[in-house]
Write a structure and sequence with these properties.
Shape: elongated
Largest sheet: 4 strands, antiparallel
Number of helices: 1
Strand content: 35-45%
Radius of gyration: 15 Å
């Protein structure tokens, strides 16, 4: 259902991307609830949505990768 990947950093910000596909059987409200839950609990935000000719929704989510910096 999903696959996480990483794109090269741009301007000092590094993002992690996750591709999610929903079949046409899922209603708009159900897809919205599932995406809101991922956003609230996983820190994801919406990057891109593509609705194909057959009604399949391909969603790309993203979240920042925070690197810990050693101070000592």
């Amino acid at each position: 259902m999903s696959r996480a990947l990483r794109r090269p950093p741009a301007r000092g910000v590094e993002w992690e991307f996750d591709k999610v596909t929903f079949s046409r059987e899922f209603s708009r409200n159900v897809v919205t609830k599932l995406l809101v839950e991922r956003a609230e609990h996983g820190g994801w935000e919406l990057d891109r949505v593509r609705i194909t000719a057959d009604g399949t929704r391909r969603v790309v989510l993203r979240r920042k990768i925070i690197r810990a910096v050693r101070t000592a």
